[in-house]
Automatic annotation (TrEMBL):
Oligomer and partners: Homodimer.
Similarity annotation: Belongs to the D-isomer specific 2-hydroxyacid dehydrogenase family. PdxB subfamily.
Organism per entry: Pantoea rwandensis
Protein name: Erythronate-4-phosphate dehydrogenase
Catalytic activity annotation: 4-phospho-D-erythronate + NAD(+) = (R)-3-hydroxy-2-oxo-4-phosphooxybutanoate + NADH + H(+)
Amino acid sequence: MKILVDENMPYARELFSRTGEVLAVPGRPLPEAELQDASGLMVRSVTKVNAELLAGTPVKFVGTATAGTDHVDDASLAAAGIAFSAAPGCNAIAVVEYVFSSLLLLAERDGFELRDRTVGIVGVGNVGGRLHKRLEAWGVKTLLCDPPRADRGDQERFHSLDELVAQADILTFHTPLFKDGPYKSWHLADMALLMALKPNTILINACRGPVVDNAALLEVLKMRSDLSVVLDVWEPEPDLNLDLLDKVDIATAHIAGYTLEGKARGTTQVFEAWCAFIGQPQQVALESLLPAPEFGTITLHGKLDQPTLKRLVHLVYDVRRDDAPLRKVAAKPGEFDRLRKQYEERREWSSLQVKCDDAESAAMLEKLGFRASL
Ligand SMILES: NC(=O)C1=CN([C@@H]2O[C@H](COP(=O)(O)OP(=O)(O)OC[C@H]3O[C@@H](n4cnc5c(N)ncnc54)[C@H](O)[C@@H]3O)[C@@H](O)[C@H]2O)C=CC1
Ligand SMILES: O=C(O)C(=O)[C@H](O)COP(=O)(O)O
């Protein structure tokens, strides 16, 4: 049995080879000829998959090691009798830590306390929900917008997008990309929304590029130098708009979810789904795959204030390590994908053990996702 796996899926060779012959291939472009004798296809977000691509091939299972699924036409796969499985939530912690890393950087640059700001979260699922919890733990006021959850009668207090725009100092998008339907998110942030943002708003997009109208954003940034913008995702990718890149404050190559843990969880979630599909169920413990983190333990004396939190966060992941390389190479074809393929190992905050002499600081660090002890 031959299984094609995206070459950007850590641990895929060793796991999938337990069940068949594995071939690691680029995701963009996918070498389609290899599908002719493949039973399973494991992709990431850069590979567009539909029934047409798989017609006439023996592929019976498609897995994506990603949270987003807009690159897969799951309805056409279902109609063709092809099973599909994704990896919901696999990299949610990574995206939350990307957002914190960015906000703490901007807070230091502009001299504000996060606790004095209101953060509007659009899309309160695996990413937005965890972001909400960590911001609340740090004492930051949040406003939540999630119409699908509100319509389902979820107990959380939700607001309209207009309310977030009117009240939030920081607006961060974490929705799936829906091109149509009742919860259409394509160009959710359009010209009108962008112009209506409060003075000095920070806008973050770490979900899908087209959720923010990039052409409108460029026009707005030419008129409004008060706004700060963090973009991890672009419209389009990989050929992002270089004028827009110049104007945003933090720019990265769709790597917000790229912790080793996040990617490895994506691989194991899809592997377990594949094993269940072929009738050989197996569970994989993430810890059995991951190497020891670079920084083991660090000691913290006294109280945890914002500058100290920033130092700890940036010790594990400083978003500038991804911003500068993108700006250097973005004009060259192929470099956006190369940065993503050759991504230097990044770990989650939980990889850092912080020894504290203050109980309150230890409790706070634990709530935020570090490992802390007294
Ligand atoms: N930059 C990156 O590396 C990553 C990007 N993503 C993107 O972020 C998206 C969100 O990720 P998760 O939180 O894991 O997904 P999720 O499916 O757990 O949560 C999405 C939430 O958005 C809500 N939602 C749907 N339509 C909405 C709308 N029009 N307005 C407001 N809320 C809406 C849903 O009800 C749900 O609660 C993914 O679909 C993916 O496209 C996810 C992981 C990494
Ligand atoms: O999980 C998602 O959704 C993402 O956006 C991924 O982090 C994107 O990574 P690739 O699948 O494009 O490697």
